[in-house]
Structure formats: C-alpha cells, structure tokens
Amino acid sequence: MKMQLAQTVGQNTFTAYGDGYVSVNAVRHTSNLVVLPDRLIPDWTKADFDTLGIADFELLASLDTEIVLLGTGMMIRFPRPELLRPLMAARKGLEVMDIQAACRTYNVLVGEGRKVAAGLIFF
C-alpha cells in the first residue's frame, strides 16, 4: 500500500467537533452548514431534519462534487426517498451518517484530493 501525506493546506477541514458544534479551520459553527474544500455555505438551510425539502437537496446537487456526506445530527437518520431525486439526476453520490462520522470522513476524502461536500444538520 502506497501512503501519501494529506494535502489539505489552504482547504477547509474539520478541526474539532462535539455536542452541538463543529469547528472548521478552528472556527466554531453551531448551525446547519455545507463545507467544501474551498468554501463554506453557512445556514445552508433553516430546516430541521424532519422539514428538509427538495430545494435543500437541489442546492447540494448543484455543487461541484463527486459525493455529498449528509451529517444528520448525533444519530443517523435517512432522508425521505423523494428528496434524493436531485442528487440522483446529477449523478452525485450520497452517504448518510452522524455529524461526527461525516467530519472524519470528509477530512479523509479531502486529504485524498476528492471532490466532496459535507452537509450538516444540527437539529
């Protein structure tokens, strides 16, 4: 197995997480957001998990990514199937996990140079 150092300098990475927050590049966030290697979309949605709508997933589908990680709070919750249509139409992968797993997975994928976004729902 060939090992390489992660190349994340100048990119957004998760530097901490805990109950009700994540830190991106040492800046704390406590509300729904999307994290991409080159930008943040704060307050991505005002919805909580139960009120997510198709427009929330259309925004995720419009991003220049290969895969979207959906962090659904402290436990894994799967969105309604009809909400996934924009991602399927855009041929984007989706992985659903809790926020902490989404942070860890995002950092690994960014380190590999992958086009990834993490959409985090805190409520």
Characterization of the model:
With about 120 residues, this protein is of the alpha/beta class. It is about 20% helix and about 30% strand. It has 3 helices and 8 strands, in the order βββββαβαβαβ. The protein has helices at about 55-60, 85-90, 100-110, and strands at about 15-20, 20-25, 25-30, 35, 40, 65-70, 95, 115-120. Strands 5-4-8-6-7 form a 5-stranded mixed beta sheet, covered by helices on one side. Strands 1-2-3 form a 3-stranded antiparallel beta sheet, covered by helices on one side. The longest helix has 13 residues, at about 100-110. The chain is globular and about 35 Å long. The termini are far apart. Residues about 1-5 have low confidence and may be disordered.
Quaternary structure: single chain
Largest sheet: 5 strands, mixed
Helix proportion: 10-25%
Uncertain regions: pLDDT < 50 for 5+ in a row? 1-5
